[in-house]
Amino acid sequence: MKIILKQDVHGLGYKDEVLTVKDGYGRNYLLPQGLAVLATAKAIKQLNEELKQRAHKIAKIKADAEAQAKKFEGVSLTIKARVSEGRNIYGSVGPKEVAAALAEKGLEIDSKLVSIKGVKTLGNYEAVAHFHREVSVVIPFEVVNEDGTPTPTKKEAAKAEAPAEEAPAVEEPATEEEETPAAE
User: Fold this and answer.
1) What is the DSSP-derived secondary structure letter of residue 38?
2) Burial status of residue 97 (CB atoms within 10 A of its CB: 0-12, 13-18, 19 or more)
3) Which of 97, 85, 74, 96 lies closest to 143, judged by CA?
4) Among residues 28, 84, 92, 106, which one has the fewest Cβ atoms lying within 10 Å of its Cβ?
5) In terms of DSSP H, where are the helices of the chain?
6) pLDDT tens for each residue of 156-175
7) What confidence tier does 75 reach under pLDDT thresholds 50, 70, 90?
8) Distance set, CA 37 to CA 106, 134, 177 (Å)
């Protein structure tokens, strides 16, 4: 089913895009929710006319997005998290934590505009902030221990996670009484 999106749909596309989706998704979700319309020849022609008329508005929106993205260029973050023994974080670091860390630096962004894979260990990572369909910025960040103790290296973390090896116990030679069963 071909549709025209009436607004941005996270994970699918942006407003005014012509897409092909599965019939059930379009018929049961996108159309009833008012997120899309059928892409008929008449609707596509009307969309093209609207896009021509809105071309200067679209250019201004893109320019605004680029200006906002320039504020985020060169920014690197340090996010503090509670850590178990080793390098594992209690929970994970996601878009909300990245948006909060940016807000602390005076850079406001909606957490829905930030995409990141679930971060579950200490280390260096990258988040992507999407301001427009053609404008996005990569934001590097480091996840550190919240109590300020130095981050264990991967080798130290592996040692902490591995069970402590004990020295092999020295077996004493068995006595004759232990070797032979007692006669009754």
Assistant:
1) E
2) buried
3) 97
4) 106
5) 23-25, 41-53, 55-72, 95-104, 154-161, 176-179
6) 555 555 554 444 555 555 55
7) confident
8) 39, 23, 91
Q: What is the pLDDT of residue 176?
A: 54
Report whether pLDDT(127) > 50.
yes
**Which are the contacts of 133, defined by CB distance < 8 A and separation ≥ 6?**
14
Whole-angstrom distance, CA of residue 2 vs CA of residue 26: 9
The whole-angstrom separation of Cα 80 and Cα 117 is: 17
pLDDT at 182 over 90: no
Q: DSSP letter string over 40-81? A: -HHHHHHHHHHHHHTHHHHHHHHHHHHHHHHHHTT--EEEEE
State the Cα–Cα distance between residues 129 and 133, nearest whole angstrom. 11
The DSSP call for residue 17 is -
What domains sit in the chain, N to C, each tagged with a CATH number? Answer: 2-53 (3.40.5.10), 70-161 (3.10.430.100)
Mean pLDDT of 63-92: 86
Q: How far, in Å, are 76, 84, 87, 93, 178 from residue 123 at the CA level? A: 13, 14, 8, 11, 56
pTM of the predicted protein model:
0.57
Rounded mean pLDDT of the chain?
A: 82
Inter-residue contact 101 to 141 (CB < 8 Å): yes
Give dist(CA 113, CA 72) in Å, integer: 13
